[in-house]
C-alpha cells in the first residue's frame, strides 16, 4: 500500500508545482514581451534603482485623473501580481510538506487556483492607484440601453461559437479534453464543488480577464499606438495565457476588444464572456 501511494503523491505534487510554474512563467513572459516594445534607453545599469524607487512612490501619490498608464505602471502591476502569486505558491508548498497530499488534494482543483488568482488581481488593482484610476472610466452601464449593443453581442457570440466549432470539430486544432482541463472541471465530486466551479469560471474569471486584457492592456496599447496593434497584441497575449486553447482564445480576445471599441465599455465584453463561460462550464459538468 505504501509503495503504491508514493508515486501518486509525487506525481500530484509535481503536477501542482508545474501548474504554478507554468502560470508564473507565462506572466514573466508577458512582462518581457511588453517591455520589448519600450525604448530601453530610459533605464540603464546606473539608474534602474532610482527608476524603480520613483515608480513605487508615484504609485501611491495623490488621486488624479489618468489618461493612460506608463510602462513602469504596467511593470509594477504585473510584478505585484506575480510576487503575491509566488508567495502563495510558497505557502502551498509548505502546506504540502506539513499536511501531505491527502489533506489538500480536494482543495486544489483548478477552480480554486482561479479564485486565488482573481483575489490576487483584485488586491493589486485596489491597492495600486495609477491602474485603479485608469480603469474607472470603463464601467459605462448606459451602453446597455442601446439596441446596437445587443446586436454586437449577438454577432460576437456567433463568431466565437463558429470559431470554436471549427477549431474543435473541423480542423481539430484543439480538443474538448484540453478545454475541460483548461477550465478546471476535472474532479468535480458534488454540488458544492460544481457551484464553486461555475462561480469561479463563469463569473469571477471573466470579470478579472476583461479588466486586465481589455480594460488595461488593450486600452494602454491603443492610446500609445493604434487600434490594430492593441487588438492583435492584447488578444494574442490573452490566447497565450489560455494554454492549449491559443487560437480560440485569441479570437475571443479580438471579439471582446471589438466590443470595447464599439461601446467604450467593458460591460458588454464581461456579459458575453460570462455567458460563453457559463454555457461551456455547464456543458462540462453535465458531461462528467
**H and E order:** HHHHHHHHHHH
Which descriptor suits the 3D outline? globular
Structural class: mainly alpha
Helices, by number, come to 11
The description of the largest β-sheet is: none
Kindly provide the radius of gyration, computed on alpha-carbon positions and rounded to a whole number of angstroms.
20 Å
Number of beta strands: 0
As a percent range, the share of strand residues is under 5%
Low-confidence stretches: 1-6, 59-65
Number of domains: 2
pLDDT averaged residue by residue: 78
Q: What portion of residues is helical? A: over 70%
Span from first to last CA?
Answer: 29 Å
Task: Explain what the structure shows.
Residues 193-279 form the CAAX prenyl protease 2/Lysostaphin resistance protein A-like domain. InterPro entries: CAAX_protease, Rce1/LyrA-like_dom. One of its GO terms (biological process) is CAAX-box protein maturation. One of its GO terms (molecular function) is endopeptidase activity. By secondary structure, this protein is mainly α. The chain has 2 domains: 1-134, no CATH class; 138-288, no CATH class. It contains 11 helices and no strands. Helix 4 packs across helix 8 (191-224), helix 8 (191-224) packs antiparallel against helix 9 and helix 9 packs antiparallel against helix 10. The longest helix is centred in the first third of the chain and has 34 residues, at 2-35. Residues 1-6 and 59-65 have low confidence and may be disordered.
Amino acid at each position: 500500500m505504501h509503495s503504491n501511494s508514493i508515486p501518486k503523491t509525487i506525481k500530484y505534487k509535481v503536477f501542482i508545482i508545474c501548474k504554478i510554474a507554468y502560470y508564473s512563467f507565462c506572466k514573466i513572459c508577458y512582462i518581457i514581451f511588453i517591455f520589448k516594445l519600450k525604448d530601453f534607453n530610459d533605464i540603464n545599469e546606473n539608474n534602474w534603482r532610482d527608476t524603480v524607487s520613483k515608480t513605487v512612490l508615484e504609485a501611491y501619490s495623490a488621486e488624479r485623473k489618468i489618461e493612460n498608464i506608463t510602462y513602469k505602471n504596467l511593470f509594477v502591476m504585473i510584478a505585484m501580481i506575480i510576487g503575491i502569486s509566488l508567495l502563495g505558491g510558497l505557502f502551498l508548498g509548505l502546506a504540502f510538506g506539513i499536511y501531505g497530499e491527502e489533506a489538500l488534494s480536494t482543495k486544489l482543483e483548478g477552480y480554486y487556483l482561479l479564485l486565488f488568482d482573481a483575489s490576487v488581481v483584485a488586491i493589486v488593482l485596489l491597492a495600486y492607484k495609477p491602474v485603479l484610476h485608469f480603469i474607472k472610466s470603463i464601467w459605462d452601464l448606459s451602453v446597455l440601453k442601446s439596441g446596437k449593443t445587443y446586436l454586437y453581442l449577438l454577432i460576437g457570440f456567433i463568431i466565437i461559437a463558429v470559431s470554436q466549432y471549427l477549431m474543435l470539430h473541423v480542423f481539430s486544432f484543439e480538443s474538448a479534453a484540453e478545454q475541460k482541463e483548461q477550465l478546471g472541471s476535472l474532479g468535480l465530486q458534488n454540488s458544492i464543488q460544481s457551484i464553486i466551479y461555475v462561480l469561479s469560471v463563469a463569473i469571477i474569471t471573466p470579470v478579472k480577464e476583461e479588466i486586465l486584457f481589455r480594460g488595461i492592456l488593450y486600452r494602454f496599447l491603443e492610446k500609445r499606438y493604434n487600434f490594430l496593434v492593441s487588438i492583435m497584441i492584447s488578444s494574442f497575449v490573452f490566447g497565450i495565457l489560455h494554454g492549449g486553447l491559443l487560437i480560440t482564445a485569441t479570437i475571443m480576445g479580438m471579439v471582446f476588444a471589438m466590443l470595447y471599441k464599439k461601446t467604450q465599455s467593458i460591460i458588454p465584453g464581461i456579459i458575453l464572456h460570462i455567458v460563453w463561460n457559463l454555457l461551456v462550464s455547464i456543458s462540462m459538468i453535465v458531461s462528467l
